[in-house]
Specification:
A hairpin with a 5-residue loop joins strand 6 and strand 7. The longest helix has 40 residues, at 51-90. It is built from 11 helices and 9 strands. It folds into 2 domains: 2-90; 109-339, Bira Bifunctional Protein, Domain 2 (BirA Bifunctional Protein, domain 2, 2-Layer Sandwich), CATH 3.30.930.10. It is elongated. The strands form 2 sheets. A 7-stranded mixed beta sheet has the order 1-4-5-9-8-7-6, sandwiched between helices. By secondary structure, it is of the alpha+beta class.
Length: 348
């Protein structure tokens, strides 16, 4: 059997010389040193030899096995080092080069406005609520004291879906859902998208954003409403803003008011955003109608409250000096990049 050792050693050397990477070396190792390899076959054959031959041949087999094992280890160390060097060379990066220009992302101006409004109202003790975009007629109209034949229910003003549902035309349904869940005293606001069939122009979009707010407690009056609006506006614009209240009709409040601010884009001189009037209608507000309180499960003989609703797109236009609402919705990245830092903006 000793005559088989030299041919195995020669075959091993030839196979080892042809192994150029670790996978090929592993195949060589399995062929010669594996459980079914050449060396193991020799060891199995020892059982057929006499005692003296077994000792002599077994010694030769062990010496060959140790030699092959050592050579495998040396070759493995060499090939691993070569492969590591090749990997480093293929993925090498010159860290001394100037980095590629990476632009920081930015929040959309509507998101910035919503975040700031929520901060302001949370500081005044208001809860932040949310509601679904697809609503029922009850939450969007009936519970808000809309007459069954009110023009807002018409298909020319509202997007209806199959099954009798609709895309909410205002964030006011959040108030009804909030009153159903909460008990007075209540302070709550909600922001989100709303949808209406609008003719598009510099100040109107079919999909836009609102914030809706409500305070309900015993003894709430118009004074509380005016104070809350003044605090909100002064915090939002970081300065005193000229405002005026005009009587207005909204089915869900009585009395109702329209709050306008002097246009910050033109300084009250008149522009496309304010329709040349110098004033921008910012929000509708008033004392919550008793029928709305009843719809929310609240006794209007015990509690009173105020409510307001505001288009946050127009608020963003005034805050960031944007003269066309369509810029907020057209997905223009060059426009959005202007808000990478919220405090830095220019007329757009």
């Amino acid at each position: 059997m000793t005559d088989k050792l030299a041919p195995i050693a020669a075959a091993f050397q030839e196979a080892l010389s042809q192994a150029t990477h670790t996978k090929e070396l592993e195949a060589v190792k399995v062929r010669f040193l594996g459980k079914k390899g050449e060396i193991q076959a020799l060891l199995v054959g020892l059982k057929d030899l006499s005692g003296e031959e077994k000792a002599q041949v077994g010694k030769g087999i062990n010496e060959l096995k140790q030699s092959l094992t050592q050579e495998i280890a040396n070759a493995e160390a060499r090939l691993v080092a070569q492969e590591e060097q090749a990997a480093l060379a293929s993925s090498w990066i010159d860290v001394t080069l100037n980095p590629q220009g990476q632009e920081a992302g930015s929040l959309h101006p509507i998101t910035l406005v919503h975040q700031r409004l929520e901060e302001i109202f949370e500081a005044m003790g208001f809860l932040i609520l949310d509601g679904p975009h697809v609503e029922t007629d009850y939450y969007n109209f009936e519970a808000l004291n809309f007459d069954p034949h009110h023009p807002a229910r018409d298909m020319h003003d509202t997007f209806f879906t199959q099954g009798g549902r609709l895309l909410r035309t205002q964030t006011s349904p959040i108030q009804i859902r909030g009153m159903e869940r909460l008990k007075p005293p209540i302070r709550m606001v909600g922001t989100g998208k709303v949808f209406r069939c609008e003719r598009l122009d510099a100040s109107h979009e079919a999909c836009f954003h609102q914030i809706e707010g409500m305070m309900i407690d015993k003894g709430i009056n118009v004074g509380h409403l005016i104070h809350t609006m003044k605090v909100m506006l002064s915090e939002m614009f970081e300065k005193e803003v000229e405002v005026r209240l005009r009587p207005g009709y909204f089915p869900f409040v009585e009395p109702g008011y329209e709050l306008e601010i002097a246009c910050l884009l033109c300084g009250g001189k008149g522009c496309a955003a304010c329709k040349k009037l110098g004033w921008v209608e910012l929000l509708g507000c008033g004392m919550v109608h008793p029928n709305v309180l009843k719809a929310g499960g609240i006794d209007p003989t015990v509690y009173s409250g105020f409510a307001f609703g505001m288009g946050t797109d127009r608020l963003a236009m005034q805050r960031y000096q944007i003269n066309d609402i369509r810029h907020l919705h057209n997905g223009d990245l060059s426009f959005n990049r202007r808000f990478s830092t919220a405090s830095q903006y220019q007329v757009y």
